[in-house]
Write a structure and sequence with these properties.
alpha/beta, Rossmann fold, 2 domains, four-stranded parallel beta sheet, 13 helices, 10 strands, globular
């Protein structure tokens, strides 16, 4: 049996676990390639117009795998921690793919820890049992995979040195941070510039809790909650010189948290980037260069006078069209 895994959405957080899980069950896997124009165009054709770009990309990756695997793994990930949910689009992926493709080759276990910590482990265990494995083999695969997953560092690889001139926090979901096609190789551009990149995934659960206590009402979406916490943490501790807020057009949860993030980061330069299939790489490059120039200028003035230019040199853009 060969199982296909779309390289989109939850892949960018859960793949270390999935890879180990199927390997421990001795199941062959095939992962779709890094996003390219063909995959993007395919997803845009398949998706409804109102879908965000990550969902369109996901459908493009599924289409790529349709004739390359016996089954395609599309878990319905509702929650992996108590009292938290993932976004509605991610929760609905099994239903979205079933209604999009006529060929039904999808493995769609429900993953839901909303009511109990680590309930998701039992969900993967039950999934392995349904695949025909015995109790011992199923639990062994889950536990070994979780241990391995916990030891995987954040995905942004740094080339930081002692003389790195800037530290930039990119606030966004893992699938926007790590898909180099849709974000136009943003991470590499910053690293080549000499910047150290900070991301929400670097925060521990206790840091996330501590930095979201100031909210009038706690957020119940896992990724957006981590993003707000990162904005607060990096700004309050004065760890970074600037922020890049990566957003996808039509993202409902990001529309709610954006005012919080911009308020928390008002004392440093901020670049807001809204991504969709129409985003221009030239526009992205131009705005990124302008943003970095202002970050450097703001840092120079602050070092000379002890004051930040903040509002005067804060760069907030709309969609990069």
């Amino acid at each position: 049996m060969k199982i296909g895994i779309p390289k989109a959405l939850a892949y960018y957080y859960f793949y270390p676990f999935w890879e180990s899980f199927f390997k421990n069950l001795n199941i062959e896997t095939v992962v779709s390639p890094t996003t390219n124009k063909e995959i993007l165009d395919s997803g845009v054709r398949l998706a409804v117009d109102e879908a965000c770009i990550p969902v369109k990309l996901f459908l493009g990756h599924v289409a790529y795998l349709m004739d390359k695997a016996d089954f395609i793994f599309i878990p319905g990930i509702k929650s992996t921690e108590p009292k938290r949910y993932y976004c509605p689009q991610m929760i609905a992926l099994p239903e979205t793919t079933r209604t999009t493709f006529s060929k039904q080759v999808f493995l769609t276990p429900e993953i839901n820890s909303y009511n109990r910590q680590f309930k998701w482990k039992e969900d993967y265990y039950e999934f392995a049992i349904k695949l025909g494995y015995d109790h011992s083999r199923a639990w062994d695969a889950v536990e070994k995979s979780w241990t391995m997953h916990e030891n995987v560092p954040p995905r942004v690889k740094q080339n930081a040195s002692a003389d790195s001139c800037l530290e930039i926090a990119i606030i966004g979901q893992p699938y926007l941070l790590n898909d180099s096609f849709i974000n136009f190789d943003l991470n590499k551009k910053l690293i080549d510039y000499g910047a150290v990149i900070r991301i929400p995934q670097e925060l521990s659960p206790s840091q996330v809790d501590a930095n979201t206590k100031i909210l009038d009402k706690d957020l119940f979406w896992s990724y957006p909650r981590n993003m707000v916490a990162a904005a607060k943490h990096y700004s309050q501790e004065e760890i970074v010189d600037g922020f890049i807020f990566l957003n996808s057009f039509a993202c409902g949860t990001n529309a709610i948290i954006e005012p919080y993030i911009l308020k928390m980061t008002e004392n440093v330069p901020v670049l807001t980037v809204t991504l969709d299939e129409h985003t221009s790489p030239t526009g992205m490059q131009t705005r990124l260069e302008a943003f970095l120039d202002m970050v450097i200028r703001n840092k120079e003035v602050k070092n000379e006078s002890g004051l930040s230019l903040n509002g005067a040199f804060t760069y907030r853009s709309g969609s990069l069209l």
